Amino acid sequence: MSRADIVKRQLEAISAEADVEMAAVRAALPALTKEELREHLRRFILYKFLLDPDCEEEDIRRLSQMSIEKLLAMSTRDLNTSDLGIGCGGTSSVDNKIILLFMALGRELEITMDPLRTPSLKTVPLLTEEVYTLLKEAGRVL
């Protein structure tokens, strides 16, 4: 198996872990607590950004930067940009990465995030508050 195949399988496994986190959120509805949501969102973000699940960083912009740094450190011959689902030669801007994260959350949880509010969601706790509020407004949490 080539190094590229190994990396592709690793990326697929990490993506599956992110899917598990969103499935856990959906399964916990309507009794999901805000703290449970925060932990699932934190792990979802770390998996989506290809970061260590033990990372304690809470700032979403910094997490995005760390993710880009990690991708840039990988050998380009081991990466295929179509496997990553991002453009710009294998990397995206920090802002694009965050926008894609918010879009994925909206899609996974069937919520509509207000594009005028998302710039203020700078940390995992602030994002958790927003997502929990949207789920509550939709009658999906108690």
Largest sheet: none
- List low-pLDDT spans: 81-87
Rg over CA atoms: 15 Å
What fraction of residues sit in β-strands? under 5%
How are the SSEs placed, and which strands pair?
Elements: H1 3-28, H2 34-48, H3 60-73, H4 81-84, H5 94-109, H6 124-137
Helix pairs in contact: 1-2, 2-6, 3-5
Any key phrases for this structure?
mainly alpha, 6 helices, 142 residues
Q: How would you portray this structure in words?
A:
The chain is mostly helical. The protein has one domain (3-137). 63% of the residues lie in helices and 0% in strands. The protein contains six helices and no strands. Helix 1 (3-28) packs antiparallel against helix 2. It is globular. It starts with a helix and ends in a 5-residue tail after the last helix.
Outline of the structure:
The chain has 142 residues and is mainly alpha-helical. The chain has helices at 3-28, 34-48, 60-73, 81-84, 94-109, 124-137. Helix 2 packs across helix 6 (124-137).
